[in-house]
Design a protein that fits this description.
Blueprint lengths: L2 H9 L5 H8 L4 H6 L15 H14 L11 H19 L4 E5 L6 E4 L5 E4 L4 E5 L7 E12 L6 E4 L4 E4 L3 E7 L2 E8 L1 E6 L2 E6 L2 E6 L2 E6 L11 E8 H12 L2 E5 L6 E7 L3 H9 L5 E6 L2 E5 L2
Parallel strand pairs: 5-6, 15-18
Antiparallel strand pairs: 1-4, 2-3, 3-5, 4-5, 5-8, 6-7, 7-10, 8-9, 9-12, 10-11, 12-13, 14-16, 17-18
Helix pairs in contact: 1-2
């Protein structure tokens, strides 16, 4: 028996026992009972007519909570839809494809690029590169110092504020600090360009611009010493040596009665500040003072 016919018989009070049981199992039976008081005139009598049941159906349906449908002609809904679609497109296609990695004072970091080339960052250095189009354009920006082992492939460019290094597959070190730009080639061939000075370096060649002056030299090492926690210098102004000390130990260095352009040859370790200070000051006939945890004073004699 269908539901409407069952309700119709219920209103007429014509249900038998089996039909009453079926009526009691209806999911809206309780609702029907609650509105019976307002529908007593529908109960069967000697003058009850079927069209009265149709009237009851209209009342019954009006009591149900209507389901609201979205009106897509509403201008606000249209605007919200456009914004949502726009944001989806932006994050899918225009999100920042650049990777930026930097080190703190006294920190070093190793990075593997998308083509499996490797970069080792020295203290207080950073690199930035685009991962989205790396296969077509192997290019990164460097601030500070880094050692590169480049996989063979298309041209590989390292751009700094002081100049650009271009290679195909090789091993080299780039150091760019204030008024200091140095490239050391350990394997393969490196092309270096800075302002009007361009050179092609072979393994063992160095390229240095310090305070605007260019020099070219030789090395015998197979990799930069800083990777083994050792900073090495050859005829370098003491100010550059102490600047590197600041980066490796996160200290501040001040001077008293010394010539900061005096040349230093030697090196210092990265894991013991007192030993590093001794290695720097004793050959230069200087002394040092640790006035606090992050302040070093260098005295001349």
């Amino acid at each position: 028996m269908d539901k409407e016919h069952l309700i119709e018989k219920w209103l007429k009070d014509e249900l038998n026992d089996a039909e009453k049981e079926m009526f009691g199992k209806l999911d809206d039976a309780e609702l029907n009972e609650n509105i019976i008081d307002s529908a007593k005139h529908f109960k069967a009598s000697h003058f009850y007519k079927l069209e009265d049941f149709n009237t009851f159906k209209t009342q019954y349906k009006s009591l149900k909570t209507p389901v609201k449908k979205l009106n897509w002609t509403n201008p606000l809904l249209k605007i919200a839809s456009v914004i949502l679609i726009g944001l989806s497109i932006y994050f899918a296609f225009f999100s920042d494809p650049f990777t930026h990695i930097e080190t703190l004072a006294g920190e070093k970091s190793s990075i593997e690029l998308p083509d499996h080339s490797k970069v080792e960052l020295n203290a207080l250095s950073s690199v930035e590169f685009n991962t989205k189009n790396w296969d077509d354009h192997r290019f990164l920006k460097l601030e500070g110092e880094a050692y590169f082992v480049v996989s063979k492939g298309k041209t590989f460019d390292v751009k700094t504020k002081s100049g650009t290094v271009t290679v195909v597959g090789t091993q080299f070190n780039v150091k760019q600090r204030d008024n200091y730009f140095e490239v050391k080639c350990f394997e393969g061939i490196v092309k270096v360009s800075s302002d009007t000075i361009s050179r092609k370096l072979l393994a063992g060649d160095t390229y240095l611009i310090l305070d605007g002056k260019f020099t070219q030299g030789k090395i015998v090492a197979s990799a930069p010493k800083w990777r083994d926690n050792w900073s090495e210098f050859e005829a370098m102004p003491i100010r550059e040596v102490l600047s590197e000390l600041e980066r490796q130990y996160n200290v501040q260095v001040t001077f008293k009665n010394i010539d900061i352009n005096r040349l230093f040859t030697g090196g210092f370790v990265h894991n013991n500040l007192e030993n590093a200070l001794i290695a720097i000051t004793q050959p230069m006939n200087m002394t040092y003072e640790l006035s606090s945890s992050n302040l070093v004073i260098i005295h001349g004699k």
